[in-house]
Predict the 3D structure of the following.
Amino acid sequence: MKAVVIREFGRPEGMAVIDLPTPLPAAGQVLVATEAVGVGGVDTLIRSGALTAYGFQEGHIPGSEVAGIVTAVGDGVDASWIGRRVWGSTGTGGGYVEQAVAPVEEIVPLPADLSPTDAVTLGSAGVVARFGLAHAHFAPGETVLVRGAAGSIGIMVVQLAARGGAAAVAVTTSSAERGERLRKIGATHVLDRFGGGADDAPAGYDVIIDVVAGEHLPSFFARLNPNGRMVVVGAVAGQPPADFGTEMMAAFQKSLSFATFSAATVTSADRNAVRAEQFAAAGRGEIEAVVHELLPLEQAVLAHQKMDAGEVFGRIVLAP
Ligand SMILES: NC(=O)c1ccc[n+]([C@@H]2O[C@H](COP(=O)([O-])OP(=O)(O)OC[C@H]3O[C@@H](n4cnc5c(N)ncnc54)[C@H](OP(=O)(O)O)[C@@H]3O)[C@@H](O)[C@H]2O)c1
């Protein structure tokens, strides 16, 4: 089978397409003939070499989100999965392949009206968005700010907050054109990356879902209303300043909350229940999967170049 491997950390061109033997599913695993593979932000971080402290080494196959047909099962797995079209998580890699193995507890059947491409666009992002909003105790009638809204997670937060009855859904993004696209899926106010550019935006927010973090995080935390909650679900701009804790304490009398959220703290059963619900909603057209582009698996390098250039709105999907 064809697989994409990181031969050398650094630039996208350090990845190569190679031939590997088709893997056999071990006990508790299924083999998926992939029809769509999601390209995630974390894949580019691993490829760049930024995550070697977490054990990633050259030779790693990136990707964790696939959809396709189950063709074989390992010991202990119900054989009735064979022939079914599923979404699956391969864990911390192993996704950019024609035949992927996934633990059976990390697969979800696809409804007939949802394409594999849409499934890998929604599958992880929707879960982070849904549980991230819950972690922030979001309630109807509240004002929400989505920082880094143009990525696959932010796009889902915008849609879920709007559908959940938010009084306002403000977003940060880097262009007016992206802002218009975000308005079409539920954004009410479009801010620039620094939080400016919209005179009519709410003066404060009850909930901020932040995919960005980085040095400007404190200036957004300062926009929380009394009793407001900020939940960081990603850190595409890196760490916040070292004195952020001091700024939080300075706002003591506003009773603010700051939290992080990782989907790793949710059980696979709960994640899968939300996925099944969101896949069904997407099939009915109630949630939009925003696919930036569909590229052949062999063009994984081009996909990463586009990611690195900040060109991607939504998700790039590879088609094996
Ligand atoms: N919490 C979890 O369980 C979980 C699960 C999976 C992934 N993640 C994390 O989520 C992040 C990726 O999410 P994603 O794919 O939705 O995000 P993304 O597409 O990588 O980034 C979101 C948006 O942030 C904006 N942005 C990028 N760099 C920025 C900067 N330096 N300053 C301000 N804005 C910037 C860009 O939009 P504009 O150009 O329009 O501003 C970009 O589209 C990663 O940090 C990943 O580790 C978390």
Remarks:
- The radius of gyration is 20 Å.
- Residues 2-113+284-319 form a domain with the Quinone Oxidoreductase; Chain A, domain 1 fold (CATH 3.90.180.10).
- Residues 41-42, 124, 128, 148, 150-154, 173-174, 178, 193, 211-212, 214, 233-237, 261-263, 310 surround NAP (CB under 6 Å).
